[in-house]
Amino acid sequence: MLGFLKQPLVVRADINLNVVALTGMGLLSRLWGLTYPRAVVFDEVYYGQYISLYMKRVFFLDGSGPPLGHMLLALGGYLGGFDGNFLWNRIGAEYSSNVPVWSLRLLPALAGAFSVPMAYQIVLELRFSHCAAMGAALLMLIENALITQSRLILLEALLIFFNLLSVLCYLKFSNLQQHSPFSLSWWFWLVLTGVACSCTVGIKYMGVFTYLLVLSVAAAHAWHLVGDQTLSNVSALGTWGWGAPTGRSRQCFSALSQACVCCHLLARAVALLVIPALMYLLFFYIHLILLFRSGPHDQVMSSAFQASLEGGLARITRGQPLEVAYGSQVTLKSVFGKPVPCWLHSHQSTYPMIYENGRGSSHQQQVTCYPFKDVNNWWIVKDPGRHQLVVSNPPRPIRHGDTVQLVHGMTARLLNTHDVAAPLSPHAQEVSCYVDHNISMPAQNLWRLEIVNRDTDRDVWKTIMSEVRFVHVNTSAILKLSGAHLPDWGFRQLEVVGEKLSRGFHESTVWNVEEHRYGKSQEQRERELELHSPIQVDVNRNLSFMARFSELQWRMLTLRTDDSEHKYSSTPLEWVTLDTNIAYWLHPKSSAQIHLLGNVVIWASASLATVTYALLFLWYLLRRRRNACDLPEDDWLRWVLAGSLCCGGWAVNYLPFFLMEKTLFLYHYLPALTFQIILLPVVLQHVGDHLCRSQLQRSVFSALVVAWYSSACHVFSTLRPLTYGDTSLSPSELRALRWKDSWDILIRKY
Amino acid sequence: MTPAVGRGPPGSELRARRGRCGTQAARAVVADVVAKDAARSPKRPAQGSRRLEAAGGWAVLALVTLLSFATRFHRLDEPAHICWDETHFGKMGSYYINRTFFFDVHPPLGKMLIGLAGYLSGYDGTFLFQKPGDKYEHHSYMGMRGFCAFLGSWLVPFAYLTVLELSKSLPAALLTAALLTFDTGCLTLSQYILLDPILLFFIMAAVLSMVKYHSCADRPFSARWWCWLTLTGISLAGALGVKFVGLFVILQVGLNTISDLWRLFGDLSLSLVTLAKHLMARIVCLIALPLALYTATFAVHFMVLTQSGPGDGFFSSAFQARLSGNNLHNASVPEHLAYGSVITVKNLRMASGYLHSHRHLYPEGIGAHQQQVTTYLHKDYNNLWIVKKHNTNSDPLDPSFPVEFVRHGDIIRLEHKETSRNLHSHYHEAPLTRKHYQVTGYGINGTGDSNDFWRIEVVNRKFGNRIKVLRSQIRLIHQVTGCVLGSSGKVLPKWGWEQLEVTCTPYLKETLNSVWNVEDHFNPKLPNISLDVLKPSFPEILLESHMVMLRGNNGLKPKDNDFTSKPWHWPINYQGLRFSGINDTDFRVYLLGNPVVWWLNLVSIAVYLLLGSVLILAVQRGVCLPAEVQGLSQVLLQGGGQALLGWALHYFPFFLMGRILYFHHYFPAVLFSSMLTGILWDSLLRLCAWRLASCCSSSLARSIHVGGILSLLLGTAYSFYLFHPLAYGMVGPLAQNPLSPMAGLRWLESWDF
Questions:
Q1: Nearest CB to A508: which of B265, B494, B561?
Q2: B267 touches chain A (CB under 8 A)
Q3: pLDDT (0 to 100) of residue A539
Q4: A336-377 residue pLDDT tens
Q5: Which residue of A has its CA nearest to B272?
Q6: Which ranges does the record mark as transmembrane (chain B) (predicted)?
Q7: Mean pLDDT of A522-533
Q8: Euclidean distance between CA atoms A590 and A610, whole angstroms
Q9: Of A205, A470, A539, B702, which one has the fewest beta carbons inside 10 Å?
């Protein structure tokens, strides 16, 4: 038990001064003058508003990515004691004194700084030389675009950090696989791989592709493991973990490392599939815990979701009776909520006798969907068999399949549909509140209630929770929000129709009760008064986390932002050649400015290295197929792994953008670029080791590399004013920096 | 998979065992299985004679073909009215007969064949094909339907032969054939004037010939080998020529070819010269030949369609000059733009249209309440504009004034001829593209304000030059705001008559959206010149028509609040398509897969994935399978893998597509799925039989196999008997009514027949 006391406690520390130096330089380059400029720079205006909402704990909906990235940025604000009071409305606006600029920008800057030593580590773990590793890190260090991007309140630096972390952890893990599987550090790196992967996904959806890359490399390695016949199938389970010393397992005891294939696969599955999934849920859990107040984005969410937030709808709906009964007064909200969330509505006006295009209508009272709260949104659920409009005692709840009539509260007319073409969707039926014009058009006002999310066929219609459809009894038409705006005669409200050709389920046919109370007044006059009075209040209804998560996730994925063209938007093809830049900020008086602009030498040579890699790889592959092995087996495997991670990392972070329809910017390319930068020294070392035959060639090659690196440094220092934005350049100096016609460098006209 | 095997040392013993159960053994087993099967097959006399066997094979094939033709041609003439998309493709067939130019999002081959079939069968192209439900009356439509049904009927024998080649097993092939013959969906789709039967025919033909040429891989460069390779190429060209969905089968053949070449490349006994020959043969037959044929179909298309028609406006001015009847054909116009000219202005972005305005205002709340300016694809009087000087309102056509040409950099005013309003822009946001400025028609009788002034610039030109009609690419820059006139390509809502939005973009990036050319040009004071110089070359029109098709395809977007078919609906047969009729008095045809077949297919895919991964894992673990199982797993992994690949390639890409999707897009995948089902169940039953044979009697095992296959065949046939009214048409009460022939068969609520 006390065995550890027999040995002296020894601490041994290996300090790799390279790493220390690189970290130091990284920190210096990223943190230097971090609070400058003390103004909103570019997309800070976008992320800033969410930070403020986190500080105020107000719920929001942002379709651009999962919440982890926003939360990390908000963490900076929290640590700096930000109270959220700043109006993020304009790029270039001066920060007020309550905004802790330094701590807000700190986290991305640290992530950017630590990416530098991580590049070093990755190349090392790929089993290339220290020299190559230093090269990768130094290139990361002087890449202007990476510096700019990590010095501001933006997400790319964090994304890159976690991208690199996932790759690094996986490499550490797979290098341990040979010698010490199931050791403590093996587990540590494996689990950390899973965690880092979930963080990449949690910051931006693009991270999914890096995760998939790591997964597929892991799958390929696992597949080799499956083919490894020295490992047993399952029986060695006893040797590891439970240690039951049965006769069988003792045979394998001699080699502890020979754990079973199943254990290996299971460990990977847990760490790389289960943990990331749980982590992802955790992000949302924290997100929803943090944001408990209702806010401006509520409207998009379902009534049930809104009711789970503090304030807003919850305040209104608290204390409502749960079960809708005959005589209930309700407002009905469209679940689809597109183009805008709205409630079923009617008013005194009738459909125009003849439409603009000459078609006729029933000239009955209009039924629409109205995006604002209004007393005309109230409907009373009536039993077709009885006359009374109050809830009996005890209330008679309505169940799935029951037939009901809907009485419009203010006009006491019944919801009706008939075989008349709807005003804007002529293939569907018009929905009206029935007015008897004595023209032998009978009332058809019976509706069958269908609860869509029912558990059993006898479910009761519940307020907020039940999603229901109204099926017209005579014509089987379904009450539907068509989404079209009515012309002036319909006050630009949304059209509601009876859909005859219901081709399956669509959310636009689904409604739910939002506000609800049991009606008490039999007289129309009293009822009107009752409708105008606010409803009484008491219990809060909670929604389970999973329900809230799935709804929020779904809304985030389907949230459509109208693709706005941006002055600095660009296409993926322009990124590789750096044909575009983004002006982030311009000093209000001088011509000091910040641009997202890459180090041209690095961009060009990184792309060149990728092409070289691909060509060499193809050449070696073909030669190997013909049994001509140019590389020793070990070198070949190393070469393939480096390529599949770096080239693969570049491809998965770049190519998907060609399929995307959203507005794209140069900074979307940065994650792909980091992988290319790591590949660059790998290719250089390969060329130096294997393609330079003589010592002379090698020396010449090294000299060239040094010359090339110093030119990269030169470019860095030339572009430095645009990266840090701290010096004001004269117009002629700025013009001199405009190396490509497509670069947009701001020159003031005096 | 016993533990003893799993834990065994990696010694020589195991390797020797693996060697024994290698591919040669497997091949022998397969041959053996086939021979046994032949002996066992209930449809043949149990004699071993080779010739008889061959004759039997032919007889079965003939039977399958006959059954397929019989089902497809049965009641082909009903209903005698237009069903569903016949209204499009029949119309396009007529266009070929009338030689009228039109535009469609699909390549021309399918419609050309339909037109040809109509022409040969005596259809004169006079029927209008206006809307579904119109009666054909005296017009001859059976030729076109018959042609489609003819091609659709070949699907079954093709699938039969493919499976026979892949699995070497007659029961598997028969099962596949039965699934396809008795699938109401394939049947319905083959019976009408549609592109799908033609497309499916070419897809299936490509797969069959690819499989056949793989089967003669041991005798490369033999006549048979060349023949099948060429046929593959031809079918690929056909598939692509009908619809772009053909790209998926090209991908499948491509992947197979690459893996085939990779295998050959690793064979060190082949010299590099031989390899080069292999490579060249494939490049010629699978790339060059299809491309040539595909191009040829377009050449024929352009040669046949020489008359101007409804599709003109989609194409550039130069393209239209080819079409007789078009006002640009053999036209002569004044060469240089002058003040006072009446012109039409066309956006250079393809399929974007002419600058247009009309007497309707932007609705209130959307920018300023002024007259709409849009782009419009069709020729119209409202496309005419008059070029005027910005500062005078005098009539420049007054003969007393000299002709004054418009020059690069001039400030002009464009007056709409019909409404006399000026092209105008201002700092209001555009209706759809919120970051752009709104463009309106403003002013009365040409008197407006300074927001009506535009600087005209020729792209890539220096100062001072005149502006040439058609050939100059011009930009119109708004004088006050500095923005550029452009078309965003977005479709306006109903208030804008679904024409395209015109905006003034403040971003000066040069895109085709903001470049225009002058197309029609009338000026009585100027001499006309001929436009023959404009005639584009064939590669140019080929490229342009592809761009237009691509754009058309992308433009088919579903609207919000509409019921649309989603790819995940398809394999579960969630919902069909109404081909004809709604009410109980109508003759109703409903495109819906036979649910028994489709759900069997769905289950088979799941079972296959499970079985396949177990087998693959076993192989990777080095488990030595018994010879019989080894043979079956070869068939399952290779033959089944081919079918699964086909299914995946023809199904999953649809998830990525933004365009509007329909149920019938799934049918190419159904073919592959049915082939997989055939192979899977045959192998499974054989596996069961083998298992039983090792413990019980072999006669029982045999009867299990035969019985299983027979019951599957009969079950499919019976389900077809139940569901055949869907395809052959039904009159009378709807399915809810117990009197209906379909009563009780509406198994899913979403089926609306």
A1: B561
A2: no
A3: 41
A4: 877 778 889 998 888 888 887 778 888 889 999 988 888 888
A5: A626
A6: 109-129, 141-161, 192-213, 225-255, 283-304, 596-619, 631-654, 666-688, 700-723
A7: 71
A8: 40
A9: A539
CA distance A721 to chain B (A): 26
Mutation target to probe the A interface, by most A beta carbons within 10 A, among B2, B7, B505 is B7
Residues B241 and B339 in one domain: no
CB proximity under 8 Å: A 261-290 to B? 261
> Between the CA of residue B632 and those of B606, B628, B673, what are the distances in Å?
18, 6, 19
List chain A residues with CB under 8 Å of B435: 564-566
**Could you tell me if B750 lies within 8 Å of chain A, comparing CB atoms?**
yes
pLDDT at A158 over 50: yes
Distance (Å) from the C-alpha of residue B431 to the closest C-alpha of chain A? 12
Q: Which of B484, B514, B541 is the last residue of a domain?
A: B541
CA distance A329 to A343: 14
Contacts of B631 (CB under 8 A, 6+ apart): B25, B26, B27, B29, B30, B32, B33
Decide if A484 touches B, using CB distance below 8 A: yes
How would residue A103 be classed by pLDDT, with cut points 50, 70 and 90?
very high
**More confident call, B621 vs A671:** A671
Mind listing the domains of chain A with CATH numbers? 181-284 (no CATH), 320-539 (2.80.10.50)
Distance, CA of B546 to CA of B297 (rounded, Å) = 13
* Interface membership of B554 toward A (CB under 8 Å): no
Answer with the one of B541, B570, B600 that is the final residue of a domain: B541
pLDDT band per the 50, 70, 90 thresholds, residue B399 = low
B502, B458 contact by CB (below 8 A): no
pLDDT higher than 80, residue A247:
no
What is the rounded average pLDDT for all residues in chain B? 84
Mutate to test the interface with A, among B561, B591, B748 (most CBs of A within 10 A): B561
User: Is residue B170, in this structure, part of any structural domain at all?
Assistant: no
Q: What are the C-alpha distances in Å from A547 to residues A302, A305, A543, B109, B521? A: 11, 9, 7, 51, 64
Pairing of strands A415-421, B422-429: unpaired
Residue A133 parent element (H or E): helix A130-141
* Closest in A230, A483, A562 to B434, CB measured: A562
Task: Write down the residue that tokens 């752009």 correspond to.
Answer: B436
- Tell me what percent of chain B is helix, strand and coil, each rounded to the nearest 5: 50, 15, 35
- Please check the confidence at residue B117 and state whether its pLDDT lies above 90: yes
Nearest to A669 by CA among A562, A569, A594, A741: A569
For the ranges B142-151, B340-349, B547-556, the maximum mean pLDDT occurs at B142-151
Q: How far is A625 from chain B (nearest CA, A)?
A: 5
Residue B549 domain flag: no
Same domain, B236 and B361: no
Bigger pLDDT: B265 vs B50: B265
Q: How far is A119 from chain B (nearest CA, A)?
A: 34
Residue of chain B with shortest Cα separation from A625: B266
Residue of chain B with shortest Cα separation from A496: B561
Name the pLDDT band for A249 (thresholds 50, 70, 90): very low
pLDDT of residue B1 exceeding 50, the answer is no
Task: Tell whether the model's pLDDT for residue B664 goes beyond 50.
Answer: yes
ipTM of the complex: 0.76
The number of distinct structural domains making up chain B is 3
Residues of B in contact with A233 (CB under 8 A): 1, 3, 6-7, 621
Residue B122 lies in a domain: no
Task: Taking residues B326-330, report their average pLDDT.
Answer: 73
pLDDT band for position B348 (cuts 50, 70, 90): confident
Domain carrying residue B500: 327-541
Is B289 among the domain residues? yes
Between B459 and B460, whose confidence is greater?
B459
With 90 as the cut, is the pLDDT of residue A677 above it? yes
Query: Chain B contacts of A501, Cβ < 8 Å?
Result: 563, 582, 752
